[in-house]
Amino acid sequence: MTDTVKLLSLAVAAPEHIITQTEAADTSARLFSDRLADFSHLASVFENAGIKQRHAARPLQWFVEPHGWQDRMDAYAEVARRLFAETATNALKKAGMRGSEVDCIVTVSSTGITTPSLDAQLAESMGFRPDVERIPVFGLGCAAGVSGFAIASRIARSRPGATVLFVSLELCTLAFRLDELTRANIIATALFGDGAGACVLRVAPSGLAEVESTGEHLFPNTLGIMGWKIDDTGFGVVLAQSLPQFAEAELRPALDGILKRNGLSHGDIDRFICHPGGARVLTALERALTLTPGTLDHERAVLAEYGNMSSPTVLFVLERVIRAGLPNRSAMLAMGPGFAASCVTLRKVA
To answer: Of 142, 199, 274, 343, which residue is the catalytic one?
Structure first.
């Protein structure tokens, strides 16, 4: 097995500020109930989201004040640098490596923009070499934890001997909008949190898991299901009410196609490791994947403790599944803007 890509290490982290779901619900009621006629009906999402708390880039009081692009991106740059350094340093330490041994860095994030990119800003302090290859990826949203992992693994496979660092980082809470009197904004307020994850991938004889296959599916005529609208104030969430129903109806055929292209079938998968988009989405995933209700237990635990952090959330789930013991074959699965589904299959290393 020396010629296969292995996941050597995984580290996750979240900002220090914690907002409980009760605090989020109470603050949202104070901010929106007098301005949004349907708020009382929408408020139930805070109770039904399956979330107890989430971590945030800024304390709760920051979100009750108006902010524009500069405030939001200044906050993103500060906290994103800190989370990138923390997760990358810990992942490299777990792999027994230093920054100077990294040959390629794949960074995914869709909740903020920095130019120069985060990897360049941290290159000196992290000890990255001048010839390190940097691949920042924007726009894949919630699917990027799996899609970016797949990109990093394919690079590692194509360059035996190269060490690839993968970083997934999102600060979703910075997109909170006081001015958006919409259902999507209230749901986003109830669901989203902040976090980051980092992995080290390399062709190696051993590791936490073997990366077996990767694949994606882009659904036609689905651009309006999920994404950002961008204006002078910042990002505004686009989130279709039909997402859980769409996932339940359309995910399985897409996933079967991905697995078939890699010589696999649904029955070959011992455990699905899913991005927990929300309580309703998890229920839809269990139905689509013909799983017994409650099977996605680690997903629900991560959702309860951290909320939906977009792309790194699936890495938080993967970390728990690894600690619990990977089965013989598992499949990481996430959906995101496009609308798209991404899948990576992992094999247990003997």
So the answer is: 142
